[in-house]
């Protein structure tokens, strides 16, 4: 069986399982360029790859987002082909024994907030911010932070640029560990929720843990009252204990935002840049992983492709 898509992209080895499909390493048969190939069963009710492809195409190759090489379907699978990136920050964090310098966390904050500002400028929410969805580049771009996985992304403004309405009683979307408190309570997500999730990610990198981790119930399972209660009851002061004051300042700001308020991105970026300057750090992009012998090809768990069954015909799905 020749696992080929779009007439040029070939499957090589499996990288990992996603929530609703599988991710493979692939290659352009003509240029030998390596790519990531995401497969999702057409029968999947989630149909996340189409949403991801639409979101990334809207971003128009913005800095720090993977480029869509091809999207379509073949046999029983939706197929999305993207840039192949390096490892995610959770794996890097684990490799570093869950220890990142304040300097590195502040540099991550600077890039990550720029990414979410870019995404929001196209009227999309991410809704699944977590370390596993933040990757570094490959080869000479290991100092570049990428935001990935837009299967749960959603537009917060319609074609008339009118903001979506505030709602309660919504089903949970995202990951419990880093999601906003409001999302766990069933409140419709908006820009403030992405920013709150980023805050939790940054504090996790500073401290190595979050106060509610003992109540955590998996990535995308139903919420449990202990986690909801724990997250709501933790004060910002307690959450940011032993952190640089910038993190408390940031969390107080994002938690104060009203549902439809546009965040002041310049302000939140400046919070962390001021912390960087006051700490006398040099912005040299020298992260801890710079000299590590890491799996930069993001292929630490490769396995044969024979586990899937794909028919011979493929078809491009156009973005209407």
UniProtKB/TrEMBL annotation:
Top-rank EC class of the record's enzyme: transferase
Q: What is its EC number?
A: 2.7.11.1
Specify the superkingdom: Eukaryota
A Pfam family (short name) is Pkinase
| Gene3D superfamilies on file | Transferase(Phosphotransferase) domain 1
GO MF term list: ATP binding; protein serine/threonine kinase activity
Sequence ranges assigned to domain Protein kinase in this UniProt record: 9-277
**Record InterPro entries:** CK1_Ser-Thr_kinase, Kinase-like_dom_sf, Prot_kinase_dom, Ser/Thr_kinase_AS
Q: What is this protein called?
A: Casein kinase I
| Taxonomic lineage of the native organism | Eukaryota, Sar, Alveolata, Ciliophora, Postciliodesmatophora
């Amino acid at each position: 069986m020749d696992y080929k898509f779009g007439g040029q992209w070939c499957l090589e080895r499996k990288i990992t399982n996603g929530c609703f499909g599988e991710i493979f390493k692939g290659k352009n048969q003509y240029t030998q360029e390596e790519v990531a190939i995401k497969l999702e069963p057409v029968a999947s009710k989630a149909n996340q790859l189409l949403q991801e492809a639409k979101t990334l195409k809207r971003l128009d190759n913005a800095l720090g987002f993977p480029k869509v090489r091809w999207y379509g379907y073949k046999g029983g699978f939706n197929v999305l082909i993207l840039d192949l990136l390096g490892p995610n920050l959770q794996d890097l964090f684990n490799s570093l024994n869950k220890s990142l310098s304040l300097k590195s966390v502040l540099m991550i904050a600077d890039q990550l907030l720029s990414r979410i500002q870019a995404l929001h400028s196209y009227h999309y929410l991410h809704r699944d911010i977590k370390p596993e969805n933040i990757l570094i580049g490959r080869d000479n771009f290991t100092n570049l932070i990428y935001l990935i996985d837009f299967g749960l992304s959603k537009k917060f403004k319609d074609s008339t640029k009118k903001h979506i309405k505030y709602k309660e009683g919504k089903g949970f979307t995202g990951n419990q560990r880093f999601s906003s408190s409001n999302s766990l309570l069933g409140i419709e997500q908006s820009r403030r929720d992405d920013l709150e999730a980023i805050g939790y990610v940054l504090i996790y990198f500073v401290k190595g843990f979050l106060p509610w981790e003992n109540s955590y119930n998996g990535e995308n399972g139903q919420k449990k009252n202990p986690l909801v209660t724990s997250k709501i009851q933790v004060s910002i002061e307690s959450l940011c204990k032993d952190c640089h004051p910038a993190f408390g300042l940031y969390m107080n700001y994002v938690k104060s935002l009203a549902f439809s308020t546009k965040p002041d991105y310049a302000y939140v970026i400046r919070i962390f840049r001021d912390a960087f300057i006051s700490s006398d750090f040099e912005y040299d992009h020298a992260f801890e992983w710079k000299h590590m012998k890491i799996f930069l090809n993001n292929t630490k768990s490769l396995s044969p492709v024979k586990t899937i069954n794909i028919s011979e015909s493929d078809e491009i799905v156009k973005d209407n």
